[in-house]
Structure formats: structure tokens, C-alpha cells
């Protein structure tokens, strides 16, 4: 058996597939190598691929939240970074002029 010699094209492919979240077993199958061989020869690509995609998505979301007037992106950013969360609840209480009232509550905190 000969030792695996990764090509530049294989390195790009592994980095991209790892970034898209393809499981290592499937990447190894695609390259027609064992998963242990994949991890041995492509460790940096496996690690960096995921980091690169996460960074690009974070940059895009940040721009959408701060420059693109995207309310959903801004809310998500505050939930993820600032600990904001939504609270939903029901309260039943007396009303001054009659039977108890049921109030649905939704708030961000």
C-alpha cells in the first residue's frame, strides 16, 4: 500500500466540504480514502473549513443587522450575543369591571 499524497485540489475540496458540514466519513468516501487517512493528512482543512464558513456567515449576519436594516438579523444578533430572549406567558387576573381576564404576554428581555 502506498502512502496518500494529498493534492491541492483535494485540500480545497476537503476544506469546502468540511465547511458545508459534510461528515468526515462521507468526505473520506468521496476521496476514496479511509477516515483515519483523511484526518491524518487533512487535519488543517477539516478544522479551517468549518471556521471559515462560520466566520463568513457571522460577517454576513452582522452586516445585515447593522447596515441592511434587517430586523430579524438584528434580533437574532441580540439573542446570540447579548442574551436577549423571548418570554411568553399567560396570566389570569381579576378585572375591575367583571370576570377574570386572560392576557397573553410576549416580550423580549
In short:
The chain has 109 residues and is of the alpha+beta class. The protein has 5 helices and 2 strands.
Molecular structure report:
The chain has 109 residues and is α+β, with helices and mostly antiparallel strands. It folds into two domains: 8-69, no CATH class; 70-109, no CATH class. It has five helices and two strands; from the N terminus they run H-H-H-H-H-E-E. It has helices spanning 8-19, 24-31, 35-41, 43-66, 71-82, and strands spanning 86-95, 98-108. Helix 1 (8-19) packs across helix 4 (43-66), helix 2 (24-31) crosses helix 3 and helix 4 crosses helix 5. The longest helix has 24 residues, at 43-66. It is elongated, with a radius of gyration of 25 Å. The relative contact order is 0.10.
- Class based on secondary structure composition and strand pairing: alpha+beta
The ordered H/E elements are HHHHHEE
* E-strand count: 2
Look at the structure and give the mean pLDDT: 85
**Radius of gyration from the alpha-carbon trace, in angstroms:** 25 Å
Q: What share of the residues does DSSP label as strand, in percent?
A: 15-25%
Question: How many domains, as an integer?
Answer: 2
List the helices and strands and how they pair.
Layout: H1 8-19, H2 24-31, H3 35-41, H4 43-66, H5 71-82, E1 86-95, E2 98-108
Antiparallel strand pairs: 1-2
Helix pairs in contact: 1-4, 2-3, 4-5
Using brief descriptors, characterize the structure shown:
109 residues; alpha+beta; two-stranded antiparallel ribbon; 2 strands
Amino acid at each position: 500500500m502506498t502512502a496518500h499524497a494529498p493534492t491541492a485540489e483535494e485540500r480545497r475540496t476537503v476544506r469546502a466540504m468540511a465547511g458545508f458540514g459534510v461528515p468526515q466519513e462521507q468526505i473520506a468516501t468521496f476521496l476514496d480514502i479511509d477516515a483515519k487517512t483523511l484526518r491524518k493528512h487533512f487535519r488543517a482543512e477539516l478544522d479551517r473549513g468549518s471556521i471559515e464558513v462560520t466566520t463568513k456567515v457571522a460577517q454576513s449576519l452582522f452586516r445585515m443587522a447593522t447596515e441592511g436594516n434587517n430586523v430579524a438579523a438584528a434580533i437574532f444578533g441580540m439573542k446570540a450575543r447579548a442574551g436577549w430572549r423571548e418570554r411568553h406567558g399567560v396570566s389570569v387576573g381579576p378585572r375591575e369591571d367583571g370576570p377574570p381576564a386572560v392576557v397573553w404576554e410576549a416580550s423580549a428581555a
